[in-house]
What we know:
By secondary structure, the protein is α/β, with parallel strands linked by helices. The chain is 39% helix and 26% strand. The protein has ten helices and ten strands. It has helices at residues 40-47, 70-75, 93-100, 106-119, 121-125, 136-148, 166-181, 193-199, 217-222, 224-231, and strands at residues 2-11, 14-24, 29-34, 55-60, 63-64, 78-81, 154-158, 185-189, 202-207, 210-216. The strands form two sheets. Strands 6-7-8-3-9-10 form a six-stranded mixed beta sheet, sandwiched between helices. A hairpin with a 2-residue loop joins strand 9 and strand 10. Helix 3 (93-100) runs parallel beside helix 6 (136-148) and helix 6 packs parallel to helix 7. The longest helix is centred in the C-terminal third of the chain and has 16 residues, at 166-181. The relative contact order is 0.19.
Amino acid sequence: MLAVEGLTCAYGDILAVEDLSFIIGKGELFALIGANGAGKTTTIMTLAGLVASRAGTVRVDGEDITRVPAHRRTDLGLALVPEGRRVFADLTVDENLTVGGARRDARALSDARAGVHALFPVLAERRNQPAGSLSGGEQQMLALGRAMMAGPRLLLVDELSLGLMPRAIDECYAALDRLRADGLAILLVEQSTDRALHAADRVAVLESGRLAWTGTGADAIGDSALVEAYLGLREG
Length: 236
Ligand code: ATP
């Protein structure tokens, strides 16, 4: 579904991502992990079209989207759940969902809203509440739901569990599981590596912008040297 090849990104002289290649298949949850500053957010923002790459290609179902602007990538099936959730605090829950599907027709919007309400019933219960009054976990559900309103085929999720209570994290991961079972491809950037490793089909470890390790989630959990070298500091 997604093929990234030789991706290189820089901020002026600072090389943030260097020669990064990976693929994500339909219905696959791919976790990108690594220490602070490893280049995870840069990668996800580049895929969303919000940071320009310096070299490399990004393909979606074979189509080269490397130079396609962010709003067109939404039309092509990429949706971002940004770090920190970034819900529109003064808008209601329902209005936030409408923003996520703003480029779709009324029928598609209504179907998507029903799907989001089925995934997260709490968003239906709180539909007329300002998003800013929701708990952190509910806001993360809203950020996921808002992204789903665009009808994506690939969900880009930056730091799903950061700052959330364990129960909310469980609910968000359970939702990702259901979406993956429906065929959605998911790229997940996570600080909480233990959760990410257990959830992921495949894992890539970034170190100083370069791919340091790649394998299945199960292989990653079983590789104590890997866990110690790259993940030990990020547990819990
Ligand atoms: P974290 O887990 O701390 O968010 P990360 O793995 O997501 O880290 P990035 O945020 O992608 O890493 O940062 C990669 C590198 O690029 C770091 O050296 C960082 O300081 C640098 N960087 C990120 N954003 C900018 C920016 N807007 N301007 C300059 N340098 C940046």
